[in-house]
Each structure stands twice: as structure tokens, then as C-alpha cells.
Specification:
By secondary structure, the protein is mainly beta. It is built from no helices and 30 strands. The strands form 7 sheets. It has a 5-stranded mixed sheet with strand order 10-11-12-15-16, with no helix packed on it. A 5-stranded mixed sheet has the order 23-24-25-26-30, with no helix packed on it.
């Protein structure tokens, strides 16, 4: 493993995504009070474009399959609702907003915070947290002439994932809602995994999980047909689709509870997790990165000076990006990229 790039951001990083060709890396984030930012980087830490929203914090990013559009999720603690958006990316100019979600119904306001997005063919899927109404899972039809090229199968931390015709998201003990545009359906009051089968008329399953904590991250290995969920108790669960729906195939524990950051490498079925530790007394932070092959821990290292909040894997190379912050809610953010030697792992410390 060796570090290849180091990027700096104005505030903490909460979301990362590589473009489908692997040439660009987008980081999004902010802080509790807003000061949201998006940065698009190329190799050697070159900034391609930037976007800032003082009243919002960016919490999710997702490319379409062609790399021409970027879906973004955000939250606003001051104004409550913050729309999810699709940006049209331009080669030599900043991106422009192509689509913006409408204001939600009053029954799921206030503080309708988007925490995850993905682009599917002709649809924008948004995962939200609503302070007083639990969680929602929304699907918006895009205009007929929308040049969105299907779904880019994200290999990154997110709150919503797709596996074939299935959409999946974790939910906690508060009420969970499903919405299509403005049609809302309450689906449960217990913690678990919500799965929508788009090939069966959006049939919904609420699945109990072997986790002992609430799901904090979810990601899919579409090549292997496996969905992974991660929880605050440090457990990782692998799921596969079957004739009766998603079924658990494996479960194991990390050494430390994940911080909600996980990704799947482009080949080989390797899962990467990040656990951050912060010491107020010493004004220091560090993150432990672990690489798993099934339940076998094949490598781990410590990144000093960073509290990890986001992970993303390169679409073709054994390369990951780790994003987070240094110390404190108003501290600058950091993104570091690493190339992984999957045959020569061991314990390392990097700064």
C-alpha cells in the first residue's frame, strides 16, 4: 500500500465518488452549520471545478454511467429541507444544475435531510432522514429527454444501494416512509433493512438483520451479486439475492466499530472499512483502514491526522480514496488516495 495523492478541502468530507473512467474524484462535505462544498479533482491534486453552498452540507454524490452527470444530496440545519440535485458536468466550465427535487409534502417536513443518492435509468433515487417523521426513500421520474445513462454501480459508502432490480437501504427504529414523488407509504417502526423490488411492482420487504446496531453504511458488489451492510456494533453482513429475496450468506466483526465508511474494490470481492478515533484531550485523530476478503482480514493500516468519514474505490484499479477531517467541526478536510498491494498487505502507519 502506498499513498499517491493528498487533497485538501475547506471542511470535513462526507461523500466521495470516482468517475466511471477513474480520471476524476468528487468530494463533498461541510460542517454542522453548513458551509457545504464540492470539489472535483484530477490526479496530482488538480482542482477541476468547485461548488459551494453556505447554508447546506453535501452528504452524498453519485455519477451516472457515462460520467456526464452527478447527483448530489445535501442537508440544511438552518432551513430544513435541502433539495437533491443533478448537475450536468462540462469539460471546461463549472457544472450547471440540470434537475432539482421539488419541495416535499408537509407531512415529512421539517428537516428533510438527503443522506444518499443514486442515478438509475430515468430516475433519481433519494434516501432522506426527516427529524420528526423518520426516514424516506424517494424515486423521482426525470424528464423524458434526460440524457442519463443508466446507473453507475457505486463502489462507495452510501445510504442506498442497488443490486440488480433491488433497491436497499437501512432504517432505524423510527418510522420509515417510502415515497414516489409525493406518494408516501409508512413501512415500519423497527430497525432493519428495507428492500424494494423494482422488477415486481416495487414490492417492499422489511428484513430483520443479524446486526446488533443500526445500519450505518451499505454498498454493493454488483459483479459478485452481493450486498454488504455495516453497523455501529462493528458487524458486517453479506447478502445475496435468492428466490425468496435477499438472504444472509456471511457475518463477521471488525476490530472497531465502523464510522459509516465502506467500499468494495473493483475486483476480487475485497471490502474496505474505515474506523476513526478522535482525542479531544490530545487534539489528535487517526483512522484504521481494514481490507477484508470475506471474513478474513487481509490487511490493515492506520492513517494519522484524519478522522475518516467517507470511502470510495476506483472503478478499475485496486485504489481507494479516504475522506474525512482533521479535528473539530470547523476544521479543514482531507482526501487521500492509496494504491493497494493485495498480495503484500500488513500493518502500517501513514501520515
Amino acid at each position: 500500500m502506498h499513498r499517491i495523492d493528498h487533497y485538501e478541502t475547506p471542511r470535513s468530507v462526507f461523500a466521495l465518488a470516482f468517475s466511471p473512467d477513474g480520471a476524476r474524484l468528487v468530494a463533498g462535505g461541510g460542517c454542522f452549520y453548513g458551509f457545504g462544498f464540492l470539489r472535483c479533482f484530477q490526479s496530482s491534486a488538480q482542482v477541476v471545478w468547485t461548488l459551494e453552498e453556505k447554508q447546506e452540507t453535501f452528504t452524498g454524490v453519485s455519477f451516472d454511467a457515462a460520467g456526464d452527470h452527478l447527483a448530489i444530496a445535501s442537508l440544511s440545519y438552518r432551513f430544513g429541507y435541502a433539495p437533491a440535485r443533478i448537475l450536468r458536468l462540462r469539460r471546461d466550465a463549472p457544472p450547471v444544475t440540470f434537475f432539482r427535487t421539488p419541495q416535499p409534502p408537509k407531512e415529512i417536513e421539517p428537516y428533510m435531510m438527503a443522506t444518499g443518492v443514486l442515478l438509475d435509468s430515468g430516475k433519481l433515487v433519494v434516501r432522506r432522514n426527516a427529524t420528526f417523521a423518520g426516514h424516506t426513500f424517494e424515486s423521482f421520474d426525470l424528464p423524458d429527454d434526460a440524457p442519463i445513462c443508466g446507473l453507475k454501480h457505486e463502489r462507495a459508502s452510501t445510504r442506498v444501494a442497488a443490486l440488480g432490480g433491488l433497491l436497499a437501504t437501512g432504517f432505524s427504529g423510527s418510522s420509515t416512509l417510502l415515497a414516489s414523488g409525493t406518494n408516501i407509504e409508512r413501512i415500519g417502526d423497527v430497525a432493519g433493512l428495507a428492500v424494494i423490488n423494482r422488477d415486481a411492482g416495487n414490492e417492499t420487504q422489511l428484513l430483520a438483520t443479524p446486526h446488533e446496531g443500526v445500519i450505518t453504511a451499505i454498498t454493493a458488489d454488483t459483479d459478485a451479486g452481493t450486498l454488504y451492510t455495516f453497523a455501529g456494533d462493528g458487524s458486517i453482513v453479506a447478502w445475496r439475492d435468492s428466490d425468496t429475496g435477499l438472504a444472509v450468506t456471511a457475518r463477521w466483526h471488525t476490530a472497531h466499530a465502523p464510522t459509516g465508511a465502506a467500499c468494495v474494490l473493483a475486483s476480487g470481492g475485497y471490502v474496505v472499512t474505515a474506523q476513526g478515533e478522535s482525542s479531544v484531550r490530545n487534539n489528535a485523530s487517526s483512522s484504521r483502514i481494514e481490507v477484508w476478503k470475506g471474513a478474513e482480514l487481509v490487511g490493515a493500516w492506520t492513517v494519522e491526522g484524519m478522522l475518516a468519514r467517507a470511502l470510495a474505490a476506483h472503478p478499475m484499479l485496486p485504489r481507494i480514496a479516504v475522506g474525512g477531517k482533521t479535528q473539530g467541526s470547523l476544521s479543514p478536510g482531507i482526501v487521500r488516495t492509496f494504491d493497494l498491494d493485495l498480495d503484500g498487505f500488513g500493518g502500517q502507519t501513514v501520515t
